[in-house]
Design brief:
With 437 residues, this protein is an alpha/beta fold. Helix content is 37%, strand content 16%. The structure holds pyridoxal-5'-phosphate.
Length: 437
Amino acid sequence: MTKPQTYDSPASAELFRRALAVTPGGVHSPVRAYKGVGGTPVFFRSAEGARMTSVDGVSFIDFCQSFGPLILGHRDPDVAAVVRETLDLAWSFGACEPYSLELAEWLTKRIPWAEKVRFVSSGTEAVMSALRIARAATGRRRLLKFDGCYHGHVDSLLVKAGSGLAGPVTSSSAGVSSEVAEETIVASLDSEQDVTDAFEKYEGEIAAVILEPLPANNGLLIQRRAFLDHVVATARAHGALVIFDEVISGLRVAVGGMAELLGIRPDLVTYGKVIGGGFPIGCYAGRADLMDLVAPIGPVYQAGTLSANPVGVRAGLATLQKAEEIGIWNVLENRSRDFAAELDGRFRAVGAPLQVAQFGSLLWIHELSDKPIRRVDQITPEHAQRFAGFFHAALREGVYLAPNAYEVGFLSAAHDQQTLETAADALERAARTIDGN
Ligand code: PLP
């Protein structure tokens, strides 16, 4: 395949040159550096609704939506009003306040398995804390995770499998000790056998199984119901806790995320992204007996200077209240299904080897495949290269996708019919340019 022609933003190039001098790789989170798609990252100066404007003054329809939090779109006016109002009250107390209580009550009233909740400042923190509770509650040290699920930059989950369960687990990041990596077992998604084997091999040692019930960090790997049921049943049969990492899917595919749609009650659950409406809020929640293991009433320590930040929790609550009022979950599901079908039709019509996987308001543009992609090893290496060309072509046509072949896209309430039609036209033009035509 030929190297893709990359999108050119002169003002961004100048800012990136400066950023490289003062920040590792010029970015504060790796995907933003465009390593997966090549070229220079576009810098943005403002955003509204479904659109972001670059520092060159170019407007893009945004399907990244800050990687998921903005279910109402950028700067929703009702959320903005609550944020402004809160700034006039306080922006941090480090003390008790009623605002996080309101969000906690909103959540616990609607999500029965979230008997108690604790707010933190990121999804990573939420996951880290849930794992600590699981180990404390079971007195076991090992964790079971799945290849293709991402849970933030928690040491014990930055691991990759050797060759299947038999191979050694190694860390996927320098700086994670082999002792920590070795405590985690990595199973393959979509494999009941792997789950059974893991629990049999490490009988009595696994504290918890953690999974994204809708894996959306290595493409959108929609799992079979029977597989998810097997994971939960096997964990329970072996005395391990079930942690659903719903940082992406929670409050995004339904209020209670995938657990609600599946009718499965996890022991612990982690939320982030939508829960803060675009502000840095995360949350872990679950069975009261487990949550009560946390300090100050229990022996599991967890704390945070800015935890339950009033601006964040009020923005989160305003987002969720509005989302509920407009019945956003059904609206977005229908709109996303239609949009995915429209794109599929157009890709087919122009002979582009692309296809769209969709669940709720999540979309993933992937290579043509005659069966659903459920595991990482079903994605070919050519996909990333082809996506790079498509990504830059989309930018030239005025559409911003997440800058990596394995990231999903999101629809928000601001992606109305007209915006989606414009986007479909643009993405069709982009698809005509890629290799494989
Ligand atoms: N868990 C999942 C499923 C995620 O998708 C992410 C982030 O993308 C995290 C955890 C980590 O959240 P954060 O980036 O807020 O630390």
